[in-house]
Structures are given as C-alpha cells and as structure tokens.
C-alpha cells in the first residue's frame, strides 16, 4: 500500500512537472477575462438612537464629543436641545429622535433642572450650511465599512414625509444599519 505522502505527491503540482497541454489551453483562449470591478467600501459612523442602529457617512462628521453642559435657548425650535461651547464656538445641539418618530418630544437635557446625560451619550458634530451643529445620540457604536453591494434603498413606507432623512439600509452579515442623510435630518 502506498504511503500517504506518495499519494499526495501525485496530487499536488511540482515546479519541475511538465504541464505543456494545460498551458496551451490557457494560452489558446481568445477571450480576455475582465477582472471583477472591485467595490470600494465607504466608511460610516454607526450610532444608536432608542436601541436602533443608524449610520451616516463619516466624511460628514467633524468630531464626536462627550455631552457637555447645554444651555437652554428660550422659544427655540422643538428639536433644538440647547447650545454648547466647543473650543471657542457656540454650537446648536439638535435631537433627531422626534423627526425619526422615535420619541414624541425632545427630552429636557439643558438647563439647571436637566438630569445628567447617560454615560454613553455623545454629540456628533457635523458641518452644515449654517456652520457647525451637534446631534445628540444615545451612543456611538463604531466606524463601519460598507461596500455598495451591501447598501439598499429604504423600503417603501420607511422614508418620506418627516422621515425623508432615511436614505437606505446597510447590511453587514446579520447587522442592519439605517442610513441617514444627516443634513436632511437637521432641516
């Protein structure tokens, strides 16, 4: 009975082996095989709002900061939580949960009666047409890389109306990311 190594020696390619007929078959093909277009993944910042995972293109994010004390703005828009001071600039901080129908009203997070922010809460600072603005999120999860084949349009009924800031879905294995147009969410 031949040994296992002798059987494997017949099976595997050796550099000194004569493979002439195989090379002729490869060289004789008329069609050039186009290399598959490689998808370039885009990076998204994933964050949580009321237990759901949302993501925005990371190129639109300037920075992420812990929640500083916010100052109330009397008679401000309902989605404006307050203003914060960041390295010499006063930035408005917005809540997008109401726009996404995750909450009925924005929470009280500014002023002397506001409770301390949850430990994982963060402010995502983005550049808008009017300057820098902050968005309150429950937690920042990760930077996720999604290829175009991993993206889908928002299903019917998800976007539109007040939720027109939902532009699609991203899937990575079993994870689902709701993709937002962050500037539309602030409008």
From TrEMBL:
Protein name in UniProt: Chemotaxis protein CheW
GO CC aspect terms: cytosol
PANTHER family tied to this protein: CHEMOTAXIS PROTEIN CHEW, CHEMOTAXIS SENSOR HISTIDINE KINASE-RELATED
SUPFAM superfamilies the UniProt entry points to: CheW-like
Residue span, CheW-like domain: 41-187
Source organism of this protein record: Melittangium boletus DSM 14713
Gene3D superfamilies per record: CheA-289, Domain 4, SH3 Domains
Domain of life: Bacteria
Family annotation (InterPro entries): CheW (IPR039315), CheW-like_dom_sf (IPR036061), CheW-lke_dom (IPR002545)
Alphabetical GO biological process terms: chemotaxis; signal transduction
């Amino acid at each position: 009975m031949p040994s296992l190594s002798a059987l494997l020696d017949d099976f595997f390619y050796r550099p000194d082996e004569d493979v002439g007929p195989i090379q002729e078959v490869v060289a004789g093909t008329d069609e050039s095989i186009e290399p598959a277009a490689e998808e370039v993944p885009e990076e998204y910042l994933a964050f949580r709002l009321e237990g759901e995972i949302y993501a925005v293109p990371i190129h639109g994010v300037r920075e992420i900061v812990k929640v500083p004390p916010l100052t109330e703005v009397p008679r401000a828009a309902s989605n404006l939580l307050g203003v914060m001071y960041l390295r010499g600039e006063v930035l408005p901080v917005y809540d997008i949960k109401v726009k996404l129908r995750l909450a009925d009203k924005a929470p009280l997070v500014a002023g002397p009666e506001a409770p301390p922010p949850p430990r994982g809460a963060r402010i995502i600072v983005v550049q808008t047409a009017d300057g820098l603005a902050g968005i309150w999120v429950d937690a920042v999860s990760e930077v996720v890389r999604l290829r175009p084949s991993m993206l889908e349009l928002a299903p019917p009924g998800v976007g539109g109306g007040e939720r027109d800031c939902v532009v699609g879905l991203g899937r990575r294995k079993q994870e689902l990311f709701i993709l937002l147009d962050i500037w539309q969410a602030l409008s």
